Amino acid sequence: MEYMSQDGYDKLVAELRELEGVELPRVRDAIAEARDKGDLSENFEYHAAKREQGKLLSKIRFKQKILEFARVVDTSRLDKGKVGLLSRVEMLNLGNQAKMTYTIVSPHEANMREGKISIKSPIAQALLGKRVGDEVSVNVPAGTIRLKIEGLT
Question: Tens digits of per-residue pLDDT, 75-91?
């Protein structure tokens, strides 16, 4: 089962509709056009379009499977006192005094540019269940960092 926010679920549905309604017909048209050009054994355009179709169908099946097992989390029922899925955590890196804010989301919603980290990431795993004022040590590829939770929303 995949737990996610309503926003993440809606984005996934929109991506799937785009793939099925726009991209797949475009690839099918490219295959038909390439097929009309003659001998398929030496037709590069045909083989490239077929490869693209295979990748696209794989993406579609993957997103369908995610949606099949997705469960939208009711944020009103979440415990706002401790870190969990969909928590927005304000932290201080005790090593360099840098402040950072991340929202903990499902792996399919993770996007560092938007400040969303996967619940399966080392930082999120270390923060789960902690409260404001708690300090955690996290093993990351660059070494160990110490974080202090300064706020939760």
Answer: 888 888 899 999 999 99
Q: What does the block give as tokens for 10?
A: 């809606």
What is the rounded distance in angstroms from the CA atom of residue 24 to the CA atom of residue 32? 12
Averaged pLDDT, 27-42: 84
At 11, is the secondary structure helix, strand, or coil? Answer: helix
Kindly state the percentage of the chain with pLDDT values over 70: 100
Place of tokens 């017909």: 25
Give the Cβ contact number of residue 16 at 10 Å. 17
The more confidently predicted of residues 135 and 36 is: 135
Residue 138: band (very low, low, confident or very high) from pLDDT cuts 50, 70, 90: very high
Give the dihedral sign, CA 121/87/115/142.
negative
Neighbours of 21 (CB within 10 A): 9
In angstroms, the CA 103 to CA 112 distance is 10
SS (H, E, C) 83-142: CCCCCEEEEEECCCCCEEEEEEECCCCCEHHHCEEECCCHHHHHHCCCCCCCEEEEEECC
Q: Is the Cα torsion angle 124, 128, 134, 138 positive or negative in sign?
A: negative
